[in-house]
């Protein structure tokens, strides 16, 4: 934990909490859209944030795409935003690598578009003799790729992951995410990642605060996952809102040790308090 002021364990003062929020950190998959479809009321919610003099930024663990792809996707869906509005676990991982492994050769288990973002930022990607292993949400996964990454992990190389999510929500259900890949690697190489960058971990949230310049105590993390989105807020000095439009259900929230400050059916329901 940092040196920020601890927030209340439970607080149902919706109007009071939201009145003090200046920045909304919004998860994407399962929170504002599913696939190529906006969750009902999400577009109006984004406009209401801006109309109320507040701001928002998209904060996603999904590293199967780079930030530019998200900007283009949102444009196809009718929302024009700049790169400054999108913060990804891939970007946070690049930041971490530059800080702690500058100039090191990296084997990246990830999609081509993420590899392009890494290389554009000066990360040296290699297929042989890497010095660091990075695993991301690779939707082009092959058995040959899995054999290679397991070999490198088994060698004892530093092993970094972009995020921990087990599943990614889609319009038709859930698909295995990088957490499932980690389970495969562990079964073969007997190691889990040494460092996981994305939500709920501090590296991602520190990167968010640095990028936005936001005050933690006036920032709320809004998402559909208890173990990533809500824990990210709880563990790092931000407010947290769980929406029930994606992965987590009310039953999950009731049974979880990680408790959101507030719960809404969807972001649409938040609008009345802005």
From TrEMBL:
The active site is at 27 (proton donor), 29 (proton donor). GO terms for molecular function: metal ion binding; phosphatase activity. GO terms for cellular component: cytoplasm. Its cofactor is Mg(2+). InterPro entries: HAD-like_sf (IPR036412), HAD-SF_hydro_IIA (IPR006357), HAD_sf (IPR023214). Pfam families: Hydrolase_6, Hydrolase_like. The keyword DNA damage does not apply. Keywords: Magnesium, Metal-binding. Belongs to the HAD-like hydrolase superfamily. NagD family. Substrate binds at residue 199. PANTHER family: 4-NITROPHENYLPHOSPHATASE-RELATED (PTHR19288), HALOACID DEHALOGENASE-LIKE HYDROLASE DOMAIN-CONTAINING PROTEIN 2 (PTHR19288:SF46). It comes from the Bacteria. This is Acid sugar phosphatase. Catalyzes the dephosphorylation of 2-6 carbon acid sugars in vitro. Its EC number is 3.1.3.-. Mg(2+) binds at residues 27, 29, 224. It is an enzyme of class 3 (hydrolase). Divalent metal ions. Mg(2+) is the most effective.
């Amino acid at each position: 934990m940092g040196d920020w002021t601890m927030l209340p364990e439970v607080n149902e003062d919706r109007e009071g909490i939201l009145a003090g929020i200046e920045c909304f950190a919004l998860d994407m998959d399962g929170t504002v859209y599913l696939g190529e479809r906006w969750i009902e009321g999400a577009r109006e919610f984004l406009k209401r944030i801006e109309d109320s003099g507040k701001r928002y930024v998209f904060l996603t663990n999904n590293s199967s795409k780079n930030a530019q792809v998200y900007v283009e996707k949102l444009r196809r869906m009718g929302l024009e935003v700049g790169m400054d509005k999108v913060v990804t676990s891939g970007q946070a991982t690049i930041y971490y690598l530059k800080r702690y492994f500058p100039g090191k050769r990296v084997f990246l288990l990830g999609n081509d578009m993420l590899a392009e973002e890494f290389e554009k930022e000066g990360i040296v990607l290699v297929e042989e003799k890497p010095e660091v292993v990075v695993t991301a949400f690779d939707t082009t996964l092959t058995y040959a790729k899995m054999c290679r990454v397991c070999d490198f992990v088994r060698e004892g190389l530093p092993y970094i992951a972009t995020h921990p999510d087990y599943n990614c929500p889609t319009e038709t259900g859930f698909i295995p995410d990088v957490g499932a890949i980690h389970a495969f690697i562990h079964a073969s190489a007997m190691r889990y990642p040494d460092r996981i960058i994305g939500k709920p971990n501090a590296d991602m949230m520190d990167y968010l605060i640095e990028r936005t310049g936001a005050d933690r105590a006036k920032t709320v993390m809004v998402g559909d996952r208890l173990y990533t989105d809500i824990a990210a807020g709880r563990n790092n000095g931000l407010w947290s809102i769980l929406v029930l439009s994606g992965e987590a259900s009310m039953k999950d929230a009731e049974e979880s040790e990680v408790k959101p400050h507030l719960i809404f059916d969807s972001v649409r329901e938040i609008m009345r308090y802005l």
